[in-house]
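Methods, example record. To illustrate the input and output format used throughout this study, we show the complete record for enoyl-[acyl-carrier-protein] reductase. The sequence lines were provided to the predictor; the line carrying C-alpha cells was produced by it.
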Amino acid sequence: MSTNASDTPRALVYDTPGEPLDALSLRELPALTPPGPGQVHLRFLSSPINPSDINTVQGKYPLMPTLPGGVPGHEGVAEVTAVGPQVSGLSVGDWAVPIKPAQGTWRTAGTFPAEHWHAVPRDIGLAAAATICINPPTALAMLENFIALKPGDTVAQNGATSAVGEAVIQIARARGIKTINLIRERPDMEATVARLKALGADLVTTEERLKDDLKASGLPAPKLGFNCVGGNAAQAVTRILADGGVLVTYGGMSMQPVTAGTAAMIFKDISFRGFWLSGRWAETQGADGRRAALDAIVALYRSGALQAPQLAPFPLAPSGGDAAAWRRAFEHVAQAHRGAKVVFDMSGGGGGSA
Ligand SMILES: NC(=O)c1ccc[n+]([C@@H]2O[C@H](COP(=O)([O-])OP(=O)(O)OC[C@H]3O[C@@H](n4cnc5c(N)ncnc54)[C@H](OP(=O)(O)O)[C@@H]3O)[C@@H](O)[C@H]2O)c1
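The corresponding predicted structure is encoded as:
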C-alpha cells in the first residue's frame, strides 16, 4: 500500500491503559502538514511489538505517550519522506530509527523532531533495522557494563530464545565469550537448540538439565548472568554463577519475583543488579552515546556477527483490506515459543527492502 506523507496517517491509539485488544483502536490521524524547523516526516515500514510495548499499553511501564490519544510503539524503522528547515543528519529517502522511547511507532506516518531519530543504512535489511533500537543494544551494554569479560569467560542467561538472548549469544561469540543458555521446555526443543547453537550458543539446556549438562560441558562457572524471566529461572542462573558473580535482571517474563538462594549470597557473595536501557542507560549515554551504540550494532550486522531476528509480520492498516489484521498480531504475540518477533508491517508486504 502507499503511505505517502500526503495520505491520511493511521495509527493504533489508546485513551486509557488496558489490555491491548481492549484499549487500542485503529484511527485516522490528521493529515500531515509540511514539516517545521527541526522536523521530519516519516513513513513507517516495520514496527515491532516488544514486551515493553504491551506493558506500556497496560499502563505498567514508566515511559508512555501522552493520553488520551496516545500512539504506542517504542521501536521501528521509517523512511524519511520530507525534511523541514534546520535538520541535519537526516535526508529524504533515509531509513531512520528512534533514539528516544515512546515516539509512537505503531502508525503509518507522522511528523517528528529529527533530533530523536538516527539514520541506519538500508544494507542491514528491514528486519535488522526494525529491531535495532532496543534488544541488540541491551545485549551489548549488559555484556560491557557489569564485569570486564575476556575471551574464554562464560556468561549464563535464561530466556535465551528472546531477541535479547539471541543477541547476547551472537555478540558474546564475536568476543570469544562462551554462553550457557536456558530455555523453556517446548515441543520444538531439538530445532530450537539447533537454532541457538547455529547462532553461537555453547550450551543450550533447561532448568531441569542444567546441572548435569553444565558439568558434562566442561565450561567454567559464569561470572555474569542475565535474567529476563524471574522465579526459578533466575535462581537457576544464580546457582551456577562463580564466586563474586553478578546476576543482572533486565526483564520479568514469568511475572515471578527474583528470589536469591541464601547459600549463593553467603558462600559466593553473588551481587544482584538491574539494567534498563531506555531509562538509566539512555540518560547516562545521552544522544551521542545512544547513536554510537546503534552504529556499533550496525557494524556488527555488516560484519556478519549478528543475524536479524525472524519476523512475524502483520499489516497495521491495509488499505481496502482486513481492518482487524492488527488484532491477530496481539494474539500471535501471546503464543509461547513463537520464535519470531511480531511486527506491524506498513511496507506493503516486503516493500522498503534493503
Ligand atoms: N531492561 C531493559 O532495558 C530491557 C531491554 C530489552 C528487553 N527487556 C526485557 O527483556 C525481556 C525479553 O524481551 P525480548 O523483546 O527480547 O523478548 P521476545 O523476543 O519477545 O521473547 C520473549 C521471551 O520470553 C520468554 N517467555 C515468555 N513468557 C515466559 C514465561 N512465562 N516464562 C518464561 N519465559 C517466558 C520466551 O520464551 P519462549 O521462546 O519459550 O516463548 C522468549 O524467550 C522482556 O521482559 C523485555 O521487557 C528489557
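Annotations derived from this record:
The radius of gyration is 21 Å.
The chain has two domains: 10-131+308-345, 135-278.
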